[in-house]
Amino acid sequence: MQQDILAYHQKLEAADKAIADTLYKTIHTAFHDVESKIWHAHPVWFIDGNPIVGYSKLKHCVRLLFWSGQSFDEPELQNEGTFKAAEKRYSNVKEIDTEALMRWLQKARTIQWDYKNLIKRKGKLVRLM
């Protein structure tokens, strides 16, 4: 695990750390070949500079966020924000369905909206894949 992501995990309470550790291991398995870093204070994975998936600690849960998740056609993911993001929230590590998570990660690799150039395009999202 990268030092910056490890430091993020070490700041979490035990239950949240268990969730984050499981998310990290599963995401890293699917995205071992792409860039990952702490971005806006949370672990995020990028393909060609475009944010794909990340997670963050919220008040009562850990939120898993897919930037293009609204296009996945997955009812377990809830719409988030005004663009194409979707999320899943976890309050217990036992809630993580790793089979579903791997399916979402496969879709995240092939279904992408261009967040990297969102500002350059003045807020207009363009589908990449």
How would you explain this protein's 3D organization?
- By secondary structure, this protein is an alpha+beta fold.
- The protein has one domain (3-110): Aspartate Aminotransferase, domain 1, CATH 3.90.1150.200.
- Helix content is 29%, strand content 24%.
- The chain contains 3 helices and 6 strands; from the N terminus they run H-H-E-E-E-E-E-E-H.
- It has helices at 3-10, 14-30, 98-110, and strands at residues 35-39, 42-47, 50-57, 62-66, 78-79, 86-90.
- It has a 6-stranded antiparallel sheet with strand order 1-2-3-4-6-5, covered by helices on one side.
- Strand 2 (42-47) and strand 3 (50-57) form a beta hairpin.
- The model has no long low-confidence stretch (mean pLDDT 93).
What can be said about this structure in brief?
This protein is α+β, with helices and mostly antiparallel strands. It has three helices and six strands.
Label this structure with key terms.
6-stranded antiparallel sheet, 129 residues, Aspartate Aminotransferase, domain 1, alpha+beta
Order of helices and strands: HHEEEEEEH
* Overall domain count: 1
Spatially, the strands of the biggest sheet line up as 1-2-3-4-6-5
How many whole angstroms does the radius of gyration measure?
14 Å
SS-based structural class?
Answer: alpha+beta
Number of strands: 6
The name of the CATH topology is Aspartate Aminotransferase, domain 1
**What is the CATH level 1 assignment?**
Alpha Beta
Shape: globular
Please identify, by name, the CATH architecture. Answer: Alpha-Beta Complex
What portion of the residues fall into strands of 2 or more residues?
A: 15-25%
Largest sheet: 6 strands, antiparallel
Low-confidence stretches: none
